[in-house]
Automatic annotation (TrEMBL):
<dbReference type="InterPro" id="IPR018060">
    <property type="entry name" value="HTH_AraC"/>
</dbReference>
<protein>
    <submittedName>
        <fullName>AraC-like DNA-binding protein</fullName>
    </submittedName>
</protein>
<dbReference type="InterPro" id="IPR050204">
    <property type="entry name" value="AraC_XylS_family_regulators"/>
</dbReference>
<dbReference type="InterPro" id="IPR018062">
    <property type="entry name" value="HTH_AraC-typ_CS"/>
</dbReference>
<feature type="domain" description="HTH araC/xylS-type">
    <location>
        <begin position="255"/>
        <end position="354"/>
    </location>
</feature>
<keyword id="KW-0804">Transcription</keyword>
<dbReference type="Pfam" id="PF12833">
    <property type="entry name" value="HTH_18"/>
</dbReference>
<feature type="compositionally biased region" description="Basic and acidic residues">
    <location>
        <begin position="1"/>
        <end position="10"/>
    </location>
</feature>
<feature type="region of interest" description="Disordered">
    <location>
        <begin position="1"/>
        <end position="42"/>
    </location>
</feature>
<keyword id="KW-0238">DNA-binding</keyword>
<dbReference type="InterPro" id="IPR020449">
    <property type="entry name" value="Tscrpt_reg_AraC-type_HTH"/>
</dbReference>
<keyword id="KW-0805">Transcription regulation</keyword>
<dbReference type="InterPro" id="IPR009057">
    <property type="entry name" value="Homeodomain-like_sf"/>
</dbReference>
<dbReference type="GO" id="GO:0043565">
    <property type="term" value="F:sequence-specific DNA binding"/>
</dbReference>
<dbReference type="GO" id="GO:0003700">
    <property type="term" value="F:DNA-binding transcription factor activity"/>
</dbReference>
Length: 383
């Protein structure tokens, strides 16, 4: 009997070993615990701002300072700043796109002609309302936004509006992100996106916002491409047109030209001649490309003056005004002052005085300074 049991045990062991060998013909899948142990830290570090921890009388001024790179804001006329302004803003930088979530009480906002002229930020913004409503006016046309819909507008143009107490998501996309599909004038600025395609976009972005803390680095480019494709599809439906291939060359050339200008902005050799050689096109063709911008020389000078304005507006910059002018290509202080005043409506010294007289209304400790500020992210987007 014992011999029989021994033989039975041997047979069972042999059978188990055989089945084990059979299973090892297939790639072994990692166990769940193995996957848990191979934890990869999240790729995105959110930038958070809140007025909740500030005294009520300081809350609105802190919010006004935080968003000043994009818009100027005001509280309703019948409301006092001492009553408080509970607002919060969280942003994620995906590289080719910024996503921001904000909750703000009712207020009015404006991107004025002066701010537009003095800012290098000209991105597209897609605003998705989760609660509340907003009304935005541009060129005399008012567009109302509400939950389930979205509005696209460019920060490269002045606008103004007002909003009720609202929670929203904003997508910030570089100015030239649609260059392969549209010429710039074909996108209807300050337009309401609606319909089934917009519903899909809204649902995807809302779901994406919940997943942002878990995304891996290698997933970010694909997410950005998906969002850009969905927005492009919504815009095509809005304009009722198909992509036009013969526009691609001109749009691509303009983008290459702008990139070349930006990386050579302070070079003494930057000129229509060197630019046309770098692009491999004639000067006549180059002038045609930049005709909507007032000409290639005007475009170069404006980018240089914007760079000078940023330097003068930086309280930490101690360069002499004449040195800043020389850095951006002006051989004399008089020529620099004249061109600067013509472009912005005030002198370089006035710009510096305005910057030096601005005292922060609250300590910067009420927002996280990791990886720069939200304004820094906006300036770097698309570069």
């Amino acid at each position: 009997m014992n011999d029989f049991k021994d033989r039975e045990s041997e047979a069972s062991a042999t059978e188990n070993a055989s089945s084990g060998l059979e299973r090892r013909r297939w790639p072994r899948q990692p166990a769940a615990q193995d996957r848990l142990n191979s934890f990869e830290p999240p790729a995105l570090k959110p930038l958070h701002f809140s007025t909740f921890q500030l005294p009520p009388e300081d809350q609105f001024d802190a919010w006004k300072e935080y968003v000043s790179g994009v818009v100027d804001v005001r509280i309703p006329d019948q409301q006092s700043t001492s009553a408080g302004f509970l607002a919060e803003h969280t942003a994620w930088n995906l590289g080719g796109m910024l996503i921001a979530k904000q909750r703000v009480p009712g207020h009015s906002y404006a991107r004025s002609e002066t701010r537009h002229r003095t800012s290098s930020i000209d991105h597209w913004v897609i605003a998705i309302m989760r609660s509340g409503r907003s009304w935005t006016e541009m060129n005399g046309a008012v567009v109302e936004n509400e939950p389930g819909k979205a509005v696209i507008r460019s920060l490269g143009f002045p606008f103004r509006g007002r909003a009720t107490d609202a929670e929203s998501l904003q997508l910030y996309l570089p100015r030239d992100v649609f260059a392969e599909t549209f010429s710039g004038h074909n996108i209807r600025n300050n337009s309401l996106l609606s319909g089934n395609l917009t519903s899909l976009l809204v649902e995807y972005v809302v779901a994406l916002e919940g997943l942002l803390p878990t995304l891996r680095t290698d997933e970010l480019p694909g997410v950005v491409r998906i969002v850009q494709s969905m927005v492009t599809t919504c815009l095509l439906a809005l304009t009722g047109q198909e992509p036009v291939s013969n526009r691609l060359l001109g749009a691509a050339l303009i983008e290459r030209a702008r990139h070349h200008i930006q990386i050579n902005l302070y070079s003494e050799d930057l000129s229509p001649e060197t630019l046309s050689r770098a692009l491999g096109i004639s000067r006549t063709h180059l002038y045609q490309l930049f005709e909507p911008s007032g000409g290639v020389l005007h475009y170069i000078q404006k980018r240089r003056l914007l760079s000078a304005h940023a330097a003068l507006s930086d309280p930490a910059n101690n360069q002499q005004i004449s040195d800043i002018g020389q850095t951006v290509g002006f051989s004399s202080a008089a020529n620099f002052s004249r061109a600067f005043s013509k472009e912005f409506g005030y002198s370089p010294s006035a710009a510096r005085s305005a910057a030096s007289s601005q005292v922060p209304v609250a300590s910067s400790s009420h927002w996280d300074k990791q990886e720069g500020t939200f304004g820094d992210w906006l300036k770097a987007l698309g570069t």
